[in-house]
Structure formats: C-alpha cells, structure tokens
Amino acid sequence: MKIIRTIEELQNIRKTITSSVGFVPTMGALHDGHISLIKQAREENEIVIVSIFVNPTQFLPGEDLDAYPRKDEADKKICEMCKVDYLFMPEISTMYGKEEVLIKAPNKSYMLEGEARPGHFDGVLLVVLKLFGLTQPTNAYFGKKDAQQLSLITQMVKDLFLPINVVACDIVRENDGLAMSSRNIYLDQTQRKDALLLSKSLYTAASLIAKDERDTKTIKNKIHEVMEKLDVEYVAIVDREFNEIQTIELNNCIILIVVRFGNTRLLDNIWL
Ligand code: PAF
Q1: Looking at the structure, do residues 194 and 163 belong to the same domain, yes or no?
Q2: Atom of ligand 1 nearest to the CA of 128
Q3: Can you tell me the distance from the alpha carbon of 36 to that of 19, in angstroms, rounded to the nearest whole number?
Q4: Whose CA is nearest to atom 5 of ligand 1?
Q5: Which residues are catalytic?
Q6: For 102-157, what is each residue's pLDDT tens digit?
Q7: pLDDT in tens, 53-97
Q8: Strand partners, 142
Q9: Pseudo-torsion of CA 99, 66, 63, 157, nearest 10°?
C-alpha cells in the first residue's frame, strides 16, 4: 500500500490507472463499518483508494473538529490489512486554499441533519467533489448510516453529470445492535447501554410495518415510546429523496432517528 500526501502525487498516479477504481472517503478512526466499505470496494474494483481527511468545512463552530478521534497509525494498519492500494492522507492546507469556489447544497440539506448542523452538507459536498476530482473513481462507497449525506452525494453526482457510480452500503452493527460510528467511543457505560434503544426502536417500527401499519404518525409515536428516557433530537420518516411522508411506501422509505448523549449525537436509521 502506498501512502499519498500531495495532490501532485495522487494526480500522477491516477493518470497511470486505466482499470476500475473503487474509492472510499473517510475521516479516519476506522471501524468495522468502514472496513466493510473497503472490503466491498476491494471485491468490485481493480484498484482501491481510501482517503483519510478530517474535513474542517463540514464542522460547525463549537463542534468536535479538534476532538474528533484521530488514529492514523491504527488506520494505516487496517488499510494494509484490507489490501488498499493507495491511502490518501492530505493536510488541511493541501486540500484548501484561502478563498475557494464553494458548493451550495440544495435547500433540503437544511432539514433534519442540516437543521441541527446548518452548512454541514455544503462542506461535505465540497470535500467529496474535490476528492472525486482527484481520484476519479469508477465506484464510490458510502454507508447508509449517513443517509442524508448519501442522498445528497447521489444527487450531486447526478446534477453535475459526474461519471461515478455511488454505491450505498448497508449499516454495520455491533453484535447487540448499536450502529457502528467513530463517535461511539465518546459514550460512557450507561450511555452505551441506553444507546441500544435506538436500534430497538427501529426494529419495533419495522415489526409494526410488517404487521401492516402504514401511518407514519403512529410509527413515530411508537419509536418515541421506546426511546422515552432518551434525549431524542428527531424521528423522521422520509422517502429516498428525503421528502417527509405520511404513509409508508415499501421500498421507498427510510426511518431516521437522532439522539443526544451529552455532546454526542448518535444517528441510526432503517431502510424499508
Ligand atoms: O462520512 C464521512 O466520513 C464524511 O462526511 C466524508 C464523506 C468522508 C466527507 O468528509
């Protein structure tokens, strides 16, 4: 595996690649969720590029940019183990100049995650577009856990006519059901136990739907009931384009929840 730190090196290497490229962008602190994306990329492409870059433009003032977990050495080993070909680890000054062309995510990026973090998705789309420009992937792999991010990146690729296939990958969970996240390490023992109510509430919703319940209000009430003791930020039921829906439509529906544990926000969702 080759570690790349400069734009020039990455561009020069990219020019020599004529076969399929699978790209997995990450912010590091790699866990089994990332590993499953990398493994899928490994299976489906000749060349695999992973990036590790904690992107400042997607953090709002006061968010956990400085405290965001950084585990470069462990991450390098994981990428070696997963047979990554190129690991791109740029500095902030490598990725950003002083004054830049900006990306404005569509209005729907200001709801749900974007309401709690206004401007977050502008930063995500900007860095992903830069990384796409550099790596020019055939396939780019994103987890369904960040469902709104995935939906906006898919829309960006479509709207900007980028010749990239965005691959949506299933959520990877701990054995007890907690969705994997780099932020899980912030949870203390009690919070870690309480966090199981997120997946429990989603499974309860899924079993209601399996029993033919279609009214999203009833389903949301049930989810709130299961998570009664938690600090729930939102429960939303949307279609794949992130429009809120009143009636469940199978194969076109995502139930999203966000819960706060102190300063840590945990997201979970289920795609129906
Ligand atoms: O999902 C993430 O880890 C980040 O938002 C991404 C896509 C790597 C962009 O910084």
Answers
A1: no
A2: 9
A3: 22
A4: 124
A5: 34
A6: 999 998 899 999 998 999 999 999 999 999 999 999 999 999 999 999 999 999 99
A7: 999 999 999 988 998 989 999 999 999 999 999 999 999 999 999
A8: 168
A9: 50
10 with 142, same domain: the answer is yes
Nearest-angstrom CA–CA distance, 106 and 139: 23
Q: How far apart are CA 237 and CA 245, in angstroms?
A: 6
Compute the distance between CA of residue 75 and CA of residue 128 in angstroms, rounded to an integer. Answer: 20
Instruction: Report the SS3 class of residue 44.
Output: helix
**Residue where a domain stops, chosen among 113, 141, 169:** 169
> Of the residues 169, 197, 214, which one is the last residue of a structural domain?
169
On whether residue 272 sits in a domain, the answer given is no
Gap between the Cα atoms of 234 and 38, Å rounded = 30
Residue nearest to atom 3 of ligand 1 (CA): 26
Residues in contact with ligand 1 by the CB-under-6-Å rule are 25-27, 55, 58, 124, 127-128, 146, 149
Total domains in the fold of the chain: 2
Q: How far, in Å, are 24, 77, 79 from residue 1 at the CA level?
A: 15, 10, 8
**Residue whose tokens read 């792999």:** 141
Tokens of 56: 């400042």
Least Cα distance to 87 among 125, 44, 34, 152 occurs for: 34
Which numbered atom of ligand 1 lies nearest the CA of 146? Answer: 1
Which distant-in-sequence residues (6+ apart) come within 8 Å of 244 by Cβ? Answer: 236, 237, 238
What gap in Å lies between CA 171 and CA 153, rounded to an integer?
17
